[in-house]
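WARN retry 2 of 3 for item q-0093 after timeout on previous attempt; input resubmitted unchanged.
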Amino acid sequence: MSSTSAAPGRGEKPPMRDALVAAAFRLFLERGYEQTTVDDIVALAGVGRRSFFRYFPSKEDVVFPDHERCLADMEAFLAASDDGHEPVRRVCDAARLVLGLYAENPTFSVQRYRLTKRVPGLRAYELSVVWRYERALAEYLRARFADRREGTLRADVIAAAVVAAHNNALRSWLRSDGKGDAGAEVDRALGYVLSTYAGTPGPAPAAAEADGDVVVVVSRRDAPLWRVVQELEGVLGRG
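OK item q-0093 returned
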């Protein structure tokens, strides 16, 4: 899957929705985010307040207009997986759908990155969005690792690693004003995750851990510890 390909199933965006996003960012850049109201945005876009809230629950949502769509695409992509997909590679491919969202409009993505850095409320909102992506990856991995001891821990660690690697590369690209190959940056970062976790099964199920020989040593209750160890070493030595 190409790193910058659009996710399947994305339809055309409503023109009014695009007009609201364009109006909002024009005002954010001219006046500042905090100084811009929803009334200002709808006035510039030439629509009513009801039209704004039909597309965006809040002013914060107009800054991240496509993340709900992208999250749905990611969840659908993971749901379409089968046992033939290596799970760590699959979540890395799912993370690339987010990259596609940013790469399809670098100018807008860079503007949003700069705006988010300046507005604490938007940074908090962005963290909540990132957490939802991470949760989607973790839930998929938890299901794949359900039959393994500490499968939940392993799933959560890998999901966090995928998100951290992806975001590290993405932010590096955004800091460069969207110059360079974003796909190559993200591929390189996700390569660390793949080399660490892909294809490694992790701890075996608890029921399968008693495959080796069982050694039983019988000793007197009052025997000194050194004598018990000596007897155990003798048994193992004869094995």
